[in-house]
Amino acid sequence: MQVFRVIKNGNYCVMSNYHLKDKQLGLSAKGLLSVMLSLPDNWTFNIKGLCSITNIKVPTIKRIIQELKDNHYLIVNKKNGKGGRFIYEYLVYESNSINPNYKGNSPEYELPYLVPPELVDDALYKYTYNNKDKIDKAE
Questions:
Q1: pLDDT (tens digit per residue) in 64-117
Q2: Beta-sheet strands, E only, within the chain
Q3: Average model confidence (pLDDT) for the chain?
Q4: How far is Cα 44 from Cα 20, in angstroms, rounded to an integer?
Q5: Residue 103 CA to its chain's centroid (Å)
Q6: How confident is residue 121, by pLDDT bands cut at 50, 70 and 90?
Q7: Contact 22, 67 (CB under 8 A)
Q8: CA–CA dist 10, 6 (Å, integer)
Q9: DSSP assignment, residue 77?
Q10: Residues whose CB falls within 8 Å of the CB of residue 48, separated by 6 or more in sequence, listed in order
Q11: Residue 91 near residue 75, CB atoms below 8 Å
Q12: What domains does the chain contain, in order, with CATH numbers?
């Protein structure tokens, strides 16, 4: 089988494939979580918004969100807002093992290397630099 890929010089995202290998998640949950992880960190999630960017109906989005919550990839906090309305805060986890509520066993595959958000650029630089250094020494 051949896979045809695009040149990744713009309009792409980097995410762990941890959730993609999780056999507890269905394909629709893996897809929605991938979409959620591809959005900017300051994105405000809500059900209608997820429906509009995925073209999936509300009942289906609610079912998928429940699956993500059940598998500890998502926490939804309900808070009081202005005028008696509720505000929902979505906490999206790239790996369910970093969710503080997760009490399950570690999956068979290796956990992703976790870096605090403020060090992401620095860690990526060091990772790239260290790998380049290893390649140069190998040659």
A1: 999 999 999 999 999 898 888 888 899 999 888 777 777 665 554 444 455 555
A2: 74-80, 86-92
A3: 79
A4: 23
A5: 19
A6: low
A7: no
A8: 10
A9: E
A10: 58
A11: yes
A12: 19-102 (1.10.10.10)
